[in-house]
Amino acid sequence: MAQVENLNIVPFVSVDNMMKLVLHVGIDTFLRELAVTIKEDFLRWEQFDKTARIASHSKDGVIELMPTSDGTLYGFKYVNGHPKNTREGRQTVTAFGVLSDVGNGYPMLLSEMTILTALRTAATSALAAKYLARSNARTMAIIGNGAQSEFQARAFKAILGVDHLRLYDIDRSASLKCLRNLDGQGFSIEICDTAQDAVEGADIITTVTADKQYATICTDNMVGPGVHLNAVGGDCPGKTELHRDILLRSDIFVEYPPQTRVEGEIQQLEKDHPVTELWEVIAGRASGRTSDRQITLFDSVGFAIEDFSALRYVRSKLATTGLYDQLDLLADPDEPRDLFGMLLRCEALQAI
Ligand code: NAD
Prior knowledge:
Blueprint: E1 10-13, H1 15-25, H2 27-43, E2 54-57, E3 62-69, E4 73-81, E5 95-101, E6 107-112, H3 114-132, E7 139-143, H4 149-160, E8 164-168, H5 172-182, E9 188-191, H6 195-198, E10 204-207, E11 214-218, E12 228-231, E13 240-242, H7 244-249, E14 251-254, H8 257-263, E15 276-277, H9 278-282, E16 296-299, H10 304-321, E17 325-327, H11 339-351
Parallel strand pairs: 1-6, 7-8, 7-10, 8-9, 10-12, 11-13, 12-16, 14-15, 14-16
Antiparallel strand pairs: 1-17, 2-3, 3-4, 4-5, 5-6
Helix pairs in contact: 1-2, 2-3, 2-4, 2-10, 3-4, 3-10
The protein binds nicotinamide-adenine-dinucleotide.
Nicotinamide-adenine-dinucleotide (NAD) binds at residues 81, 83, 86, 92-93, 117, 121, 143-148, 168-171, 174, 208-211, 215, 217, 232-233, 235, 300-302.
């Protein structure tokens, strides 16, 4: 396997290699180490070039580009969100991403990010909950039992010790799939008939449904004192999961306010409604949970720095595992300005 440092060869992590990498590291270790990497980058939040993601909306979904840079590395993710896709045998969310050297602009890594997004979203949610949920939280309701759900469960177990799950999905087969996939992994799991039933006795409520509309997955009466809400599924303009009244009773924590005010649950609130940036809590500049009766809400939409951290983490594993392909992505004529000559030499070779 060539050195990852060879500038003309771009390491490419396929879906197959990503799965092998996650299993080689171990799912729990991967989630914990990824959370540490995200925390490291949140602690140096101010060093990053930040911009709300660039979204191209259409009738059925959205395609987004999520760029950021720390001045040394540049990263971006391409991601879609199409709730109707599962009915056609496709994923709601797929993604890939690139990490580049700011010094010369050359890509250093191209990676699948569908699995990586599920892992980074779960790691970020669990990291947030570490600061926002009650420290004795062990029971989590998961409403929406699709592609992201098991990753959320595993991250909350690995990072917080959550080991009791209450599942609800409008499609019972999704809950049964989730139950099967988490079987034997140290959880006690109940499948519930309604969302109301699922939140009964839950310390943490994760909403991770896919629907391209203002949905009301949770109404105000469902959220009691002391609960932490991990609202993951509402991540687009016109797509929310929580009733506005819940937001008015919650202390709200967000990734990057200019993006979340457009995409998150808080799109339902006034533009100046107070929110706290998660990085400030992690850095000790702002308070997280301050009482056992407080309702905390992590209004997750997914921010570029989390993807940057995930790519940085994956790249750190390549040299030792060799779990990548070498991609011939960059033209490299012997004389850098002789790009056309390289084409002519290829033509001459083909003529032989
Ligand atoms: P998915 O399509 O695989 O699963 C969604 C599940 O939600 C389905 O099983 C569906 O039956 C269920 N559902 C829909 N409406 C429901 C309702 N009213 N009550 C209960 N269940 C309902 O999608 P996924 O990949 O798991 O993603 C879920 C959501 O999370 C999407 O909206 C996606 O955009 C979002 N997401 C957010 C982030 C983030 O960083 N915040 C990251 C990844 C995905």
